[in-house]
Amino acid sequence: MAATTSTDMSTLNTALDKISNIKLKCKDGKLVTISKRIIRESEVLSHNFSVVDEVEQTIPLPDIHSTVMKQIVAFYDLIEDDSEYVPPSKYTDRPTKDHPGVGFFSNFTVEELQALTHACGYLDMPRLQDFILCHMIVDIIQDREIKEIRERGMMKTDYTPEEEAEFVKRHEAPIEVVQPQ
Amino acid sequence: MTPRPLTPTAPPPDDVLGPCITDILTDDVLYNILEWLPLRDRVKMRRVSRRFRDLSTKFSDVDGLALSHEHIVTSNYRLTSSVAYKPGCPNHLPRCHRLLPRLFHVSKLAIHHNQALNVFLFNENAFKQVQQLVLPNTAFDFQLLHLWLSLERVLAAPKLTHLSILATKSTVLGKSRVFTVAHAEMVKSKRLKVLQLQGVLIGPKALSMLAAKYGDTLEELRLGGVCVHTPDSEAYWQSILKFRKLTVLELPPSLFSLRSHPVTREWSYFPQLISLQKLQIYICGKDCEMQSFVSHLPKSCTQIVVVNRSGHNLQKIYSYAGQNIHVKQLENKLVGLRWPGNMLDTHGHLRLSAFWEPPYFRQEDMHNFIITPEILLAQINNTDSVLPGLAQSEIYAPETMVMLTAKESLADFHSVKSPRSGFGQKMHTAREHSPVVEEPMEAVDILEFLSQLRLPGINFFGDNDPMPLPNQNQANNNFVMPPQELPQGAPPPVPNLPDISDPPTTPPPVVSTNGIQSPVNPTQPVTTEANVSTIQAVTGDGSTITSTWTFTDISIIPSMSLTSTVGSVGTMTVNIETETETGTDSDSISTDSTLSMDTTQRSSSPVRTPEQSHP
C-alpha cells in the first residue's frame, strides 16, 4: 500500500471519506474520474491526500495525458478483485503471463508502454510498474534467444560482427539453469 | 477473472522495426527489467546491445551471493536465481572470476566449496562489505594449508555480523577440522552478533578468545554442531558465561545434555545467562527431569528446542514460577543451505543439522587412529567426547605447518604470509601435531597397537597380565575404568548407556588389485602375504560398539574391524586371508578368552591355528 504509516493512512481514509468523486485534470485539459483505489496505490496521490486538510475534488495532473490515465483506470478495473499489493519476494511469486494484469498490456505499442512507464513512475505506483515490467519480460525477453529479443523489442544490435563472433566464442561453454525455488 | 478485451488507443506503427525499446525507456526502467530476470537471462542480455551490456553488468541490486565449484547463486530483493555450470566445463572458473569483481559489494556471502575461496587469493579487497558469511567446514582442515590466506581475508570482513561455518554434505564429520585460536584472531569485525559452528572441533582457548572479543556483542551462539573436549567443559562454560548479551544458545551434546543422572554443577551455569531467550539442547537420558531443569533457567528464557533421543515424551509447555517455557522438538534432519536462515536449497553443498551427535568417532574417522581406553570409555558414555591434545592443536598457526609442508609444495609456502611472532618456533608436521592422526603404522607396530586395544578378559598375547575384568558384582555388566587408567581431568565414569544413535556405517568395500576387499586406497597394490581382514570380539551383554581401523601404509592389513563389548568374557574371531600360489585362502580362528597371533609373520604359510601361533 502506498501510504505507509498508520497516521498517514488514517488521514488518507478520512480525506477520502469526504470525497465521493475524484477527478484528475490531465495534460490535454480533459477530466478523468479515478477510483479511491488508484489514489491508495499511488504514493504521490495518497501523500497529497494525507497531508492536505482540504482536498479539492479536481486535481491537476499536468504531466500525464488523459489517454494514458484512462489506460491506468482500465488496468485497475481489470484487477479490482486483487488484494493489497505486496511486491513479490520470490521469483516464483512474480506476476506471470496468465495473470490478466500482465496480459492487459499485450496489445500495447512500445510508445504506449513508454508513456505508461513514465506515468506510473510519476505517480509512483509499484503495482503498475511491476506489471508493465513483467509484461515486457514475458513478452520480449524470457525464454527467447538473442535474435528473438532483438526482433520483439525492435532493438538493433550495435555490435560489430567481430564482436558477435567473440561473444559466441567466449560463451560457448555450456551452462544450464538451476530451477530457483 | 477474465481479462477484458482492450482496443489499443494508438494504431500499430507502420514501420515494422518501429522505435527501439531501448531508445524510449530510461536506464532506470531498463535496469528494473533486469532486476526481474534470473541470472542466466540477465547475463544473456549482455549480448543484445551495448546499452544492455553496460546495464546488465552492474549488479548493484544484488545483495547476496553463493558460490560453489558448480553453481553461482545471486539474490536481490526480488528473486534468487542460479546458474549452474555443467560438470567438467573447463571454463567456469575464469568466467566466474570475471563476474565476481562486479559482486564484491554483496552483504550476504555463502561459500559452499573450498575452490570458491580462491577468489580471495587474487583479490585482497574482495567482499569487504559482507555482513553475513557462510563458510564450509572443510576450509578449516589444518591439512589444507593453501586456504589459510583466503580464510584470513574472508574472515577479516570489517562489517561481519553473522558468521556460519557449516558442514559439507559430501564429507563425514572428521577430526582434522578445527576452529583454532588463529581463526578466532582472523575475525576482525567488532560487531559480530551471530556465530554458528557446525562440523568443526573447537577448543576452550578458541572459545575463550571469541568470548574476549565478542562478549559484549554476540547475541546468538550456535555450537550444537561442534564437538568439544568434554573434560574441559568447565573452561568452555566459563567462556560461554562471558557472552553477556547471549539470547540464543545451542549446546553440543559433548558439552551438555540432559541425561538420567544430571550434573547439577552444569545446571548452575544457566541462571547466569541473564539474557537467554532460547536454548537448544540434546536429551538422551530416559528419566531426564525436564521440570527440574526448567527451574534452573533464567526468567528471560521462553523456549527450549530439543532433539529428544530419550524415548520419553516431553510436554509442550513447562511452567515454572508463573512463566511458561515452550518446548519444541526437532527432527535431526539434514537440510541443504543456500543462505543463512532461509532459502533452503537442495543444490547447496552445505547442510544444517541440529547437533553433532554421538558416537563422535565413526568408522570413517578412525583412519590411523589409536583407540585409547579413555576414548573407548567416552564412546560408551554416549555423550562425552575425549579429544586428547585438542588444546595443543587449537593454537596452531598456519605458518607453523607450512614450514615443513613447503618442502613438498612450494605453492603452499607462497600462499601464506611470513610467520608471526610467537608461532613457528617449533617445526612440526601436521601429522606430528595432530592429536588424532598418528604416523602410519608399520607392520612391526601391530603388536604394540593391539596391546593398546586390550579389552577386559581378552588377551591378545597370552601374557599373564590381561586387562582386568569388570567386577561381576557390578550391576548389569557396567564397565568402570580402573581409576589409574582415567586421564587427568576426565569426567567420572558413568554407567554404560545404551547406544541409541544410528548404527555406524561401513564404507563401501572396493575390490583391490589382487581381489581382496579393501575399503580404502583401491589403487594401491596390495603386496601382502597374510591379511587379517576382520577381528571380532563379542561378549554377552548385547550392546556393542563398533570401530574400524584402516591402514593404508602397511603391507599386511588393509582393513580390520573390531567389534567388542566391554563386559564379561566373550569370544573373539580372527579371519585371516592368506595369498598362496593357488589363490587366496581364508580361515578364521575363534577363542573364548585368549588369543595369540604373530602378525609379524610374513611367509606364505597356511593359516595357523591358535595353538600354532601361540608363543
Strand content of chain A: 5-15%
Describe the sheet with the most strands of chain B.
16 strands, mixed
CATH class of the largest domain in chain B: Alpha Beta
- Named CATH topology of chain A: Potassium Channel Kv1.1, Chain A
Shape of chain B: elongated
Here the CATH topology of the largest domain in chain B equals Leucine-rich repeat, LRR (right-handed beta-alpha superhelix)
The tally of structural domains of chain A comes to: 1
Order of helices and strands of chain A: HEEHHEHHHHHHE
CATH architecture level-2 label of chain A: 2-Layer Sandwich
| Count of alpha/pi helices of chain B | 19
Overall mean pLDDT of chain B: 64
The helical percent of chain B reads: 10-25%
Question: CATH superfamily of chain A, please?
Answer: Potassium Channel Kv1.1, Chain A
Would you identify the regions of chain A where 5 or more consecutive residues have pLDDT less than 50?
A: 173-181
Defining traits:
heterodimer, A: 181 residues, mainly alpha, disordered C terminus, B: 615 residues, alpha/beta, Leucine-rich repeat, LRR (right-handed beta-alpha superhelix), 16-stranded mixed beta sheet, five-stranded mixed beta sheet, elongated, disordered N terminus
Verbal overview:
The complex is a heterodimer of chains A (181) and B (615). Chain A has one domain: Potassium Channel Kv1.1, Chain A (2-Layer Sandwich), CATH 3.30.710.10. Chain A is built from nine helices and four strands, in the order αββααβααααααβ. Chain A has helices at 6-18, 36-41, 43-51, 66-78, 100-103, 110-123, 126-141, 146-152, 161-170, and strands spanning 22-25, 31-34, 58-60, 175-178. Chain A is elongated, with a radius of gyration of 20 Å. Chain B is elongated. In chain B, the strands form three sheets. Chain B has a 16-stranded mixed beta sheet that branches. Chain B has a five-stranded mixed beta sheet with strand order 20-21-19-22-23, with no helix packed on it. In chain B, strands 17-18 form a two-stranded antiparallel sheet. The longest helix of chain B is centred in the middle third of the chain and has 11 residues, at 204-214. Chains A and B meet through helix 4, helix 6, helix 7, helix 8 and strand 4 of A and helix 1, helix 2, helix 3 and strand 3 of B. Strand 4 of chain A pairs antiparallel with strand 3 of chain B, so a sheet runs across the interface. Chain B: Pfam families: F-box. Chain B: Residues 25-65 form the F-box domain.
